[in-house]
Amino acid sequence: MITEINFDGIIGPTHNYAGLSRGNMASASNAGDVSQPRAAALQGIDKMRHNVALGLPQGFFAPLDRPDAAWLAALATDLDSAEAHLRAQAWSASSMWAANAATVSPAPDSGDGKCHLTVANLVTMPHRSHEWQGTLAQLRLAFAHPAFAVHGPVPAPFGDEGAANHMRLCAGHDQPGVEIFVYGVGGGRFPARQHLDASKAIARHHRLDPDRTLFIRQSDTAIQGGAFHNDVVAVANERVLFTHETAFEDRAAAHAQIRAAFPEVEIVEVPASAVSLPDAVKSYLFNAQLVSLPDDGGMGLILPTEARETPSVWTWLEAHVAGNGPIRRLFPVDVRQSMANGGGPACLRLRVVADPATVDPRFMADEAKLDRIAAVVAAHWPEAIAPGDLASPALTADVRRARGQLLAALDLTELE
C-alpha cells in the first residue's frame, strides 16, 4: 500500500554550534554556544516516537561519518592542521536535517511508475557540500527495490537543497499529484540556495508531466528575512497548502498557477498582519510536519514548542483550529537542540510516498528499534561539545566509535 513515510535524520554525535549556515538566523545567533549532542539525538528520537504513536509510518537515516577526514584531505589538510573554519565544516552534523537529503517524486507522478529520488548536491554551503556521497549510499541501500529510481546529484554550480524547496499537492498520497519546485534568485546579503536549473533538471530526471509541474520563485523578502529554504515559510500536504503571505515573490501569480494546476487546493495563508515574518521564522511555524492522521482523523501539525511560546503564532493557530480550517490538531514537540542550530521538525524529515514493504526494513522504525537507538545514544553520544573541543583527538575517536556502535546496533555496518 502506497503511503507517506517520514524518514528522520538521527542527530549525530558531532552536533555542534559553529554557525556555518549563512542566512539561517538561529544558526548564526547560537554560534559558539555549547551543544548537547546526546540531548539533541534523544529529542529527535522522541519526535519519532511521537509520530509512531500517532500511527504514522516512520523511518530514519543514520548519521554520516564525521569529522570528514577525506574531505579535508581533498583540501590538502587534516584534522590536526586544518584552519578552524575548515575543521568546523568537516565536523558538521547537518545531515541530521533529512529534508535536504533528496527530492522525492512518488510513483503516481512519474512517467515510468517508479518513485524517484535525487540526492541533493548542497553546493551552496561548504559544510554541507560533502554530504551527498554518504547520503547517496544510504538512499541506494534503503531504496534498492525496483520500485525506486535513485539518482546522483545535479552537477555544480546549480545549487539543489532537496525537499526543503519542493512541495506536492494531491487528492491522496497514492493519487497523481502536482509537484511544486520553489527556487530563489541571488543578489541579497543571504544566498538563494535553490537554483531554477537544478529544479528543472530534477523534474526531467523524475519524468514528471510538465502540465503538473510548477516552478515558483521564493520571495526575496522571505530569503533575506531568514527563510533560507521554502519550508520555513510554506508546507503542503495532500490538498492543503499552508503558507505565509510573504512566501512567494509574486503571491497572486503563484496562487493562480497553483489553483490552475490543482483546482482542489485549499490555500491556508497566514497574513503578515497576524504573524510577522520574523515571528514565523523564529517560531518555525511553517517548518512543521503537516500530516494526514490515520482513520480519517483530519490533518495535524507537528510543530516545535517554540511556536506555542510565540504569542502571535499560537493565537493564530488556536483560532484556526477552533474554526473550520483543515488543520484540526496541534502537536508541539521539543526539538530545541535542533532549533538552536536552525532546523525544526520538518527539517529533520524526508517525506517518501511509497509502499513500506519495498523499503529496506533496517531503515524503518518501531518502538523497539527506537529504544535500541536511544540506548546507544545514551551510552555513547557526548553530553556536550564546546567550540574548542573540535580540535580534540580524543573526542574525534569517541564520536567515530559512537557512530560505529549505532551502525552495529542497526545492522548497517556496510555504511562504516
Order of helices and strands: EHHEHHEEHEEEHEHEEHEHEEHHEHEHH
- What class do helices, strands and sheet pairing give? alpha/beta
Rounded radius of gyration (Å)? 20 Å
Residues in helices, as a percent range:
25-40%
Average pLDDT level: 95
How many angstroms does the end-to-end distance come to? 32 Å
Count of alpha/pi helices: 14
Total number of beta strands? 15
The proportion of residues in beta strands is 15-25%
Strand order of the largest sheet: 2-1-15
Topology (elements, then pairings):
Elements (H helix, E strand, L loop, with lengths): L2 E7 L15 H5 L7 H17 L4 E4 L7 H6 L9 H8 L10 E4 L9 E5 L12 H11 L5 E4 L14 E5 L6 E7 L12 H10 L7 E5 L2 H5 L9 E4 L2 E5 L6 H11 L4 E5 L6 H7 L5 E4 L6 E6 H4 L2 H12 L4 E7 L2 H5 L8 E6 L12 H14 L12 H17 L7
Parallel strand pairs: 1-2, 4-5, 7-8, 10-11, 13-14
Antiparallel strand pairs: 1-15, 3-4, 6-7, 9-10, 12-13
Task: Give a quick set of tags describing it.
416 residues, 14 helices, alpha/beta, globular, 19% strand
Note down, in words, how this protein is organized.
The chain has 416 residues and is an alpha/beta fold. It is 32% helix and 19% strand. The chain has 14 helices and 15 strands. The protein has a three-stranded mixed beta sheet, with helices on one face. Strand 10, helix 8 and strand 11 (266-270) form a beta-alpha-beta unit. Helix 13 runs antiparallel to helix 14 (393-409). The model has no long low-confidence stretch (mean pLDDT 95).
Overview in brief:
It contains 14 helices and 15 strands. It is of the alpha/beta class. The longest helix is centred in the first third of the chain and has 17 residues, at 37-53.
